[in-house]
């Protein structure tokens, strides 16, 4: 059962690594160690890479900045500038990645990812963040607006991600901002005030989709700001869960990918074997079936039907979208600090 699979993945967060091939260490989100996503690597090298796990992007960065050694890591797009500024990564040699030319150009449309110094980021996977809700307990009209998170009727019945990027995406959308690269001080304050109101309804901040799924499945919460994989897994377990991406204020999307860490302890060629295994039709199918995300290579996604994307919460929508693309690092640090205050009740 996939819900139990993610529960097992959550337990792995306490472990330093999932040991296999010692010549490649991948620092990744729990759950991405599923072999069907990178079967080509196993076919060539005889085993999975060694995986080490983290729970959120800031945790991963702090661990690597403190000296933890791995060969590649899997940050989401808004983190790449921090890795570059800290000198933790080096460019990829895209001549060793045949499918690089097939990556949808919109995922590389930033000098943070690609400049005269080289290609610093290989975007691989994308998903959506929106309102997950118990369809038996929550009327559809309540989740037609993001103000459901401040609705007094849901006090103690909501959950938000323990992720500054995702909660600020929500707060900006809820207060009328759809582009977080152009936020004024007044818009920041308005969003922060809204987030403080939303905090009053929060039962728990979830750390990963397994925890969010458990909170909803147990009946502890009825409404959550969620990535699309959690509701997908719950639907497969016959839980009455909806995923509202078309609230009048909109929803969010994100994409993640791999960086090449400097001075990795493993073999560089195996890092390329791993990336090449991801960027295939087999990788696209494995990613959708196990995690619920899309691959950044349209050609590799050709066998996936439009209905499968809709079922995974990735279909087209008619609502505003805040894309979690790179924003100003100083603004992001300001948001992170304010989020910590809000969680602490200040």
From TrEMBL:
InterPro entries: Sperm_putr-bd. SUPFAM superfamilies: Periplasmic binding protein-like II (SSF53850). Keywords: Periplasm, Signal, Transport. It is found in: Periplasm. Pfam families: SBP_bac_6 (PF13343). Coiled coil: none annotated. Residues 1-19 form the signal peptide. This is Extracellular solute-binding protein. It comes from Paracoccus pacificus.
């Amino acid at each position: 059962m996939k819900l139990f699979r993610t529960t097992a993945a959550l337990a792995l967060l306490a472990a330093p690594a999932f040991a296999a091939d010692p010549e490649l260490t991948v620092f990744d989100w729990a759950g991405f160690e599923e072999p069907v996503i990178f079967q080509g690597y196993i076919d060539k090298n005889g085993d999975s890479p060694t995986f080490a796990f983290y729970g959120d992007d800031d945790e991963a960065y702090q661990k690597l900045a403190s000296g933890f050694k791995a060969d590649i890591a899997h940050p989401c797009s808004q983190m790449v500038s921090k890795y570059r500024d800290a000198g933790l990564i080096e460019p990829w040699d895209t001549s060793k990645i045949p499918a690089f030319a097939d990556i949808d150009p919109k995922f590389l449309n930033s000098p943070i990812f690609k400049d005269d110094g080289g290609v610093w980021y290989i975007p691989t996977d994308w998903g959506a963040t929106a309102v997950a809700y118990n369809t038996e307990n929550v009327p559809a009209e309540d989740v037609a607006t993001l103000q459901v998170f401040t609705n007094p009727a849901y006090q103690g019945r909501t959950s938000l991600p323990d992720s500054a990027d995702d909660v600020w995406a929500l707060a900006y959308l809820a207060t009328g901002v759809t582009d977080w690269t152009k936020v004024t001080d007044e818009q920041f304050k308005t969003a922060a005030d809204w987030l403080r109101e939303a905090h009053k309804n929060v039962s728990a901040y979830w750390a990963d989709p397994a925890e969010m799924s458990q909170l909803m499945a147990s009946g502890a919460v009825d409404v959550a700001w969620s990535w699309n994989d959690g509701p997908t897994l719950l639907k497969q377990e016959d839980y009455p869960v909806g995923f509202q991406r078309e609230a009048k204020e909109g929803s969010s999307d994100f994409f993640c990918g791999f960086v090449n860490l400097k001075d990795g302890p493993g073999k560089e060629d195996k890092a390329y074997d791993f990336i090449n295994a991801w960027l295939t039709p087999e990788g696209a199918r494995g990613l959708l079936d196990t995690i619920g995300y899309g691959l950044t290579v349209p050609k590799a996604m050709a066998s996936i039907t439009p209905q499968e994307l809709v079922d995974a919460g990735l279909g087209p929508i008619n609502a505003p979208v805040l894309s979690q693309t790179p924003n100003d690092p100083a603004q992001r640090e300001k948001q992170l600090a304010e989020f910590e205050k809000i969680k602490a009740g200040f």
